[in-house]
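Fill in residues.
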């Protein structure tokens, strides 16, 4: 008979059992379920709700059960629905009535909330460590190629020269915000849900503070109904992971472009590429492409979770069992990306000559010319027009911007002097962008130092 079978006179249909089970995926929560049950039974004993010897027996047997699951020596069956009922049944099987006391003052509704919160806390900690390693890999690439210059793009058109390190630091910043989002999410996960019962709390004199302390939560949830219905923290985590996925997909796209024949800015190590089964010459950036693709899965999981919770009446509804697969998949996917992407970035070789050559198109320094005019007190909009006319003149006369004489330049920019002819070097263009957050080498060095210090703290 099922653990809840007292009021039933017929067995569940076989296909219903298969339909409603969740143990095939929630079994991964078993260690947290064991920890939770140990803390819960210790609390029940300390409050005089069950005998201390019973709690001791339960704790000992939970260790045995955990070991059996560790060793693959534990049978999972769809009839027992989920991991919670598997572990409780195993306790009862081993301890009889003593085991039947573990579920006192507890529901699977607050139990699953507990297990998942503990799981999520531990995963967030790992994810944060993984993202920080990713940042470190990017920083090491920044240091190795600190003075490489490439064209910065807007609209995928050459815009202005920037340091390659500046470009990578943009991703370090994004990943830094991803970490902040995860840390912030953690503070809301870190509430003990156990003790909420099915939805209304318990008539028994339980001590939630005891359990909070034992399980290392910072706080205790304040409303039992909210507690068993709440999946906000999953939505937040999936949002943080989807945003991380978007950042990875953008970096992937940059890398894919950079190693295309058209750009030829970088070369990925052979270990991170694959070939074509037909075209012998191919070396494809599959890791970046798969990562770009995997971000779609994470976004999908976020959409699933949002849709799952929308319009659900209070409190627990079985729909919520569907929360786990997207949650697990998003976490697994993010961790998979983190298991390869940082290494790929670390080992990437930079083709500085090609980058510099692409950044040496004098047209990329047109803004520098306009800003030079501002220094001569020309209003910026007028300066912009003059330089625009200069660019057009060059185009009409089939010349590069740095191939004109001063006289020719003065046709469209009457204020120009000799110094204007020296403005077309990408190196000095970059050096002049000294404002805080700009791409000048000193600024970039300062940012690299900031992140290095931040990440070693
Ligand atoms: N397997 C369920 C879930 O994942 C656990 C809670 C079930 N509660 C219930 N009353 N059926 O959500």
């Amino acid at each position: 008979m099922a653990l809840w079978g007292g009021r039933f006179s017929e067995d569940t249909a076989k296909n219903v059992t298969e339909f409603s089970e969740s143990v095939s995926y929630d079994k991964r929560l078993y260690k947290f379920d064991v920890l939770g049950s140990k803390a819960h039974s210790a609390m029940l004993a300390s409050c005089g709700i069950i005998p201390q010897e019973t709690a001791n027996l339960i704790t000992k047997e939970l260790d045995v059960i955990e070991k059996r699951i560790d060793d693959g020596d534990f049978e999972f069956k769809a009839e027992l629905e989920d991991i919670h009922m598997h572990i409780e049944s195993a306790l009862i099987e081993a301890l009889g009535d003593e085991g039947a006391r573990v579920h006192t003052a507890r529901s699977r509704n607050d139990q699953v909330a507990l297990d998942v919160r503990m799981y999520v806390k531990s995963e967030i900690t790992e994810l944060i460590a993984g993202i920080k390693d990713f940042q470190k890999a990017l920083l090491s690439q920044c240091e190795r190629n600190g003075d490489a210059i490439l064209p910065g793009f807007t609209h995928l058109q050459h815009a202005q020269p920037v340091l390659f390190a500046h470009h990578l630091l943009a991703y370090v910043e994004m990943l830094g915000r991803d970490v902040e989002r995860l840390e912030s999410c953690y503070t809301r996960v870190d509430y003990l849900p156990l003790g909420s019962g099915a939805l209304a709390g318990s008539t028994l004199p339980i001590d939630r503070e005891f359990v909070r302390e034992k399980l290392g939560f910072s706080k205790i949830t304040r409303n039992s109904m909210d507690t068993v219905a709440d999946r906000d923290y999953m939505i937040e985590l999936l949002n943080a992971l989807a945003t991380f996925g978007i950042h990875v997909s953008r970096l992937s796209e940059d890398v894919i472009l950079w190693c295309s024949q058209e750009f030829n800015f970088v070369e990925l190590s052979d270990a991170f590429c694959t070939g074509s089964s037909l075209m012998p010459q191919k070396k494809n950036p599959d890791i970046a492409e798969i990562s770009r693709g995997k971000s779609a899965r994470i976004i999908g999981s976020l959409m699933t979770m949002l849709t799952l919770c929308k319009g659900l009446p209070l409190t627990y509804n079985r729909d919520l069992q569907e929360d786990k697969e997207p949650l697990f998949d998003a976490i697994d996917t993010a961790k998979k990306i983190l298991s390869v992407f940082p290494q790929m970035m670390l080992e990437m070789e930079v083709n500085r000559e090609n980058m510099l050559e692409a950044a040496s198109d004098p047209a990329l320094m047109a803004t520098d010319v306009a800003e030079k005019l501002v220094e001569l007190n020309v209003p910026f909009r007028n300066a912009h027009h003059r330089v625009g006319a200069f660019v057009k003149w060059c185009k009409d006369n089939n010349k590069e911007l740095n191939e004109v004489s001063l006289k020719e330049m003065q046709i469209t920019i009457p204020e120009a002097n000799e110094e204007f002819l020296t403005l077309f070097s990408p190196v000095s263009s970059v050096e002049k962008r000294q404002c805080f957050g700009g791409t000048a080498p000193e600024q970039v060095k300062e940012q690299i130092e900031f992140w290095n210090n931040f990440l070693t703290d």
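Residues 22, 26, 82, 108-109, 112, 318, 320-321 surround arginine (CB under 6 Å).
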